[in-house]
Amino acid sequence: MILEERIRVQIDGDFKCQCYLCELDRSDPFIPKREAFGEKIETINQQYAQSNSQQAIKLIEPLVDKLRQTYQKRKELQTHLYIPLNIQAKLYYSMKQYEKAAELLKEFDEKINEFKVVQSSNMGIEAMILLSKCYELARIIDLTNRHGV
């Protein structure tokens, strides 16, 4: 849930969450910028993912890099990177660039491991399944290239 939605729920319910993530987000001036990057990334993914993964990557990659930069001073709970990293990994996977997809999925896994609740989410489970497929396909490609099959 984005910060704005969490705040609305808290106001409507006359409740102010004081969990670490909510406190961190309330004091973070980069939240609006991160949410805007996330929305752009999801829009691009919806427009191009099925028809032109290379174009989607070309447009998404610089946005994810900018999103990462907003976390230079905040090293923990980089929650706005979860979905963009997952999107990037799936795009690379669809382009048969399994090592790059695996690299992004490992980064995703490192980030969600900070936030234990997310680990059991569908997104976390799906990412780990995709990571195992990337490793297996990259291994098959490597063996094929080495043995000239």
Highlighted features:
elongated, 8 helices, 149 residues, mainly alpha, single chain
Q: How would you sum up this structure, described in words?
A:
The chain has one domain. The termini are far apart. The model has no long low-confidence stretch (mean pLDDT 83). It has eight helices and no strands. The longest helix is centred in the last third of the chain and has 26 residues, at 122-147. The chain is mostly helical.
The counted number of beta strands is: 0
Helix-and-strand structural type: mainly alpha
What proportion of the residues is helical, as a percent range? Answer: over 70%
Give, in order, the helices and strands.
HHHHHHHH
Low-confidence stretches: none
Number of helices: 8
**Total domains:** 1
Alpha carbon gap, first and last residue: 48 Å
Gross morphology: elongated
The largest pleated sheet is described as: none
Radius of gyration: 17 Å
Percent in strands: under 5%
Mean pLDDT: 83
SSE order and pairing:
Layout: H1 3-12, H2 20-26, H3 31-48, H4 53-69, H5 82-94, H6 98-112, H7 116-119, H8 122-147
Helix pairs in contact: 3-4, 4-5, 5-6, 5-8, 6-8
